[in-house]
Amino acid sequence: MFIEDGDLVLRPVEEEDLKFIRDTRMTPGVREEMGFRKPANLEQMEEGFTEAVENDDHIELLIVYQESRAGHLSVDLDPENGNADYGMFLHTDFHGEGLGTRVTELVLEYVFSEFPVNRVDVSYRKGNKASEKMQRKTGFQEEARERDYIYLRGEYHDLVRKSLLREEWEK
């Protein structure tokens, strides 16, 4: 275990988790919202996993809820500028339970406590109500909207970029 909060555990991704991550990424309801348009086989997942493990500024954690694999998150650190980019997804079986908010609160605590990070950035497709709600609940502030950035289901959608500054998180 790495980070634990009752029935929620964030732990490093292991090679045996890659099939779950791949399958979840391809699940309708996750694939579209996260922009995973092309399928990936396990060999491609393993290559990406190896690259990620070797990058000291990249963190990948598996989300385990009530002892079941529930999702995946990543944090890309930019130590020179004190920034971090955060993204996560949950398997559709775990949507609507407030789990994304709990995970994000734990990740923010970890990133702001362990690294000289001044801001954490996130982005999502406008219309993704779950991401919008989670980011609002955890204090992220909108900074930019990139118009017609994402093509999904025959339509273009805006990409919303938000951030949370250390001073805002500390309040």
Question: What this model shows, in words?
Answer:
The protein has 171 residues and is of the alpha+beta class. The chain has helices spanning 18-25, 31-34, 42-54, 99-114, 129-137, 166-170; strands spanning 3-5, 8-12, 58-65, 68-78, 83-90, 119-125, 141-152, 155-165. Strands 1-2-3-4-5-6-8-7 form an eight-stranded mixed beta sheet, with helices on both faces. The longest helix has 16 residues, at 99-114. The radius of gyration is 16 Å and the shape is globular. It starts with a strand and ends with a helix. The mean pLDDT is 89.
Features of the shown structure:
171 residues; alpha+beta; 8 strands; 32% helix
Summarize the structure.
The chain is 32% helix and 38% strand.
**What profile does the largest beta sheet have?**
8 strands, mixed
- Overall pLDDT, averaged? 89
Q: Helices and strands: which structural class?
A: alpha+beta
Strand content: 35-45%
Strand segment tally: 8
Q: How far is the N terminus from the C terminus?
A: 28 Å
| Share in helix | 25-40%
Which residue ranges are poorly predicted, with pLDDT under 50 across at least 5 consecutive positions? none
Rg, nearest Å: 16 Å
- Spatial order of the strands forming the largest sheet: 1-2-3-4-5-6-8-7
* Global geometry: globular
Helical stretch count? 6
Oligomer: single chain
- Written as H for each helix and E for each strand, in order along the chain, the element string is EEHHHEEEHEHEEH
